């Protein structure tokens, strides 16, 4: 659809949308929040407002590079930021470097036995990237293998400034103080995440923990015994645990708090849904869509956006006050505001900012949709079409940033028309989603963490 037609369609759609939906404000949290406490920041929004960010950068020449430091091991977890500290997780193979195969391919086989690893949590100084402390959470051979494109440290840690929580699947959940002291740890037994069709195709656990008001929330969808749980952050004791009849999923849950509802929203194949934060009671449920859910749900105004892929590529816009069992077709369910059967993301968590929902698929095709009604505003390709895109995009300073697996970062303007503002190279593979704080982009790549800011 060309820009003029898109604008006409968007205006017509808005005329048909209830006033409450038009007035909804999709940005979550303070505009100038300087912390990035978990995967995709506060409420998984991927948005960091209030500070200028660069159009482009150059690692080789140092243009707009604050610092770049080497990080050992292989990890796809994102950095998180609180105050003057950055926290990371990593998995260091004792006998040689771990192999990584990027690109667009469909091999389901896991990596053969790689031997012993060190699963570690690192704390860095945000001003220069200096490592302040390193703690080894696990030392040994992982119980289950990983995917050829995956890592043993795929879950992004979470923090509230007083606790730093790292999830390593079968190898355990660990909580540290800001100075690196281990506060508590928890063992959930065998958590085998992989392809439910071929159960020996273990791919590695990757769902990230979420912290809200002193409570830690976990979504654990695995081959056997899936559940969602709430734990006390101070000691790891369970507040509630609810079983889930679902196959392995790989994304984080999302907290949504509003008047008359406080819920934890989960993606899934057999069970997308919302759970009461206090009790774990199921509030609503939706089944179907893609059968290997990876993206994390996000919230914009009065709508929850869920996308997944593999069996179809749907995007769902669900009323945040939904109740009961929903239907995939909006005509059959009043709580399903709109859906699109083919523009959903496989790997990336989307972004909703302003009037628009941005969905970048794993082949680099970026779709901009009207967030309220689902109409397509534009659809454009980033890159040549032969690169994979796994790192989730972020929004800052009126710009969107998307990184390919080869480490090429595309900067795109927010708004009605597609406009590429910059193209930069990180110098090595990039699978992790970035953090953004005080106008600085923190990109974690194959062997480095790079701080990027306008100068």
Question: What does this molecule look like?
Answer:
This protein has 455 residues and is mainly beta. It has one domain: YVTN repeat-like/Quinoprotein amine dehydrogenase (Methylamine Dehydrogenase, Chain H, 7 Propeller). 4% of the residues lie in helices and 37% in strands. The protein has helices at residues 3-15, 19-23; strands at 65-70, 80-82, 85-93, 117-125, 131-140, 158-159, 164-167, 173-176, 182-186, 210-212, 215-220, 227-232, 238-243, 254-258, 261-266, 272-276, 282-286, 298-300, 303-307, 315-319, 324-325, 336-340, 351-353, 356-360, 365-370, 376-381, 394-396, 399-403, 408-413, 420-425, 435-437, 440-444, 448-452. Strands 14-15-16-17-21 form a five-stranded mixed sheet, with no helix packed on it. 51% of the residues are buried.
- The residue ranges in which pLDDT falls below 50 over 5 or more consecutive positions are 1-31
Number of strands: 33
Shape: globular
Helix/strand class: mainly beta
CATH class: Mainly Beta
Proper CATH architecture: 7 Propeller
Q: Could you please say which CATH topology applies here?
A: Methylamine Dehydrogenase, Chain H
Largest sheet: 5 strands, mixed
What percent strand? Answer: 35-45%
